[in-house]
């Protein structure tokens, strides 16, 4: 199932759309097995162990991705194949800050050029590694899919952080679309 032509076969099955993403949530094809495709933590896509160097191809593959439970798939109307994702399928590589205070809007752009604004529909969350205490921030991109926030972008968020009490604890966090997103406990 993982020959060199498999990736091209999948691309050929993607229906052409005028605008927006293909409706992968509506497609329920038969599972055809796993292919040797992996998305590394840094957002690099690999096929048969080799980085996919053509950004338009990566971007197109990203539009047919779906996560069911803990598993990731590339889905077309006729085929569903499993892929490996090391952490999150996308990386938020830039941040644009619009406004300030509670009216502030945080606009993220991913490595595959998805643009999302943190808010009620696109939550920002931070997981902390219990062993290293290193934070891993994520922003919701689309149904069940998140972007790992690049370290440089996270530093920008830290610079924007303000204190606020949440459930009796003092947190540092950021505002976007009227929602406060805690990013770490306030050491003060």
Series of secondary-structure elements, N-terminal to C-terminal: HEEEHEEEEEEEEEHEEE
Please give the domain count. 2
**How would you characterize the largest beta sheet?**
6 strands, mixed
Coarse shape: elongated
The first-level CATH class name of the largest domain: Mainly Beta
How many helical stretches? 3
- The neighbouring-strand order within the major sheet is 3-2-1-6-5-4
Q: Any idea of the CATH topology of the largest domain? A: duf1285 protein fold
Q: How many DSSP-defined strands? A: 15
Percent strand equals over 45%
Q: Quote the average pLDDT.
A: 91
Query: Which parts are unreliable, with pLDDT below 50 for 5 consecutive residues or more?
Result: none
Structural class: mainly beta
Using the 3D structure, state the CATH architecture of the largest domain: Roll
Round the Cα radius of gyration to an integer and report it. Answer: 18 Å
CATH homologous superfamily designation of the largest domain:
duf1285 protein
Descriptive account of the structure:
With 188 residues, the chain is mainly β. It folds into two domains: 6-85, duf1285 like domain (duf1285 like fold), CATH 3.10.540.10; 90-185, duf1285 protein (duf1285 protein fold). It is built from three helices and 15 strands. Strands 3-2-1-6-5-4 form a six-stranded mixed sheet. The chain has a six-stranded mixed sheet with strand order 9-8-7-12-11-10. It has a three-stranded antiparallel sheet with strand order 13-14-15, with helices on one face. The radius of gyration is 18 Å and the shape is elongated.
């Amino acid at each position: 199932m993982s020959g060199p032509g498999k990736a091209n076969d999948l691309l050929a099955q993607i229906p052409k759309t005028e605008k927006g993403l293909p409706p992968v949530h509506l497609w329920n094809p038969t599972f055809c097995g796993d292919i040797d495709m992996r998305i590394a933590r840094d957002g690099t896509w690999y096929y048969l162990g080799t980085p996919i160097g053509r950004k338009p191809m990566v971007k197109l593959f990203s539009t047919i991705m779906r996560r069911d439970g803990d598993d990731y798939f590339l889905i077309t109307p006729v085929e569903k194949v499993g892929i490996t994702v090391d952490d999150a399928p996308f990386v938020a590589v830039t941040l644009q800050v619009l406004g300030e205070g509670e009216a502030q809007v945080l606009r993220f752009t991913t490595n595959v050029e998805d643009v999302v604004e943190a808010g009620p529909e696109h939550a920002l969350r931070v997981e902390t590694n219990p062993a290293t205490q290193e934070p891993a921030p994520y922003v919701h991109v689309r149904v069940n899919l998140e972007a790992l926030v690049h370290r440089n972008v996270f530093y920008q968020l830290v610079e924007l952080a303000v204190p606020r009490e949440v459930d009796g604890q003092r947190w540092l966090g950021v505002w976007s679309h009227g929602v406060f997103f805690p990013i770490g406990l306030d050491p003060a």
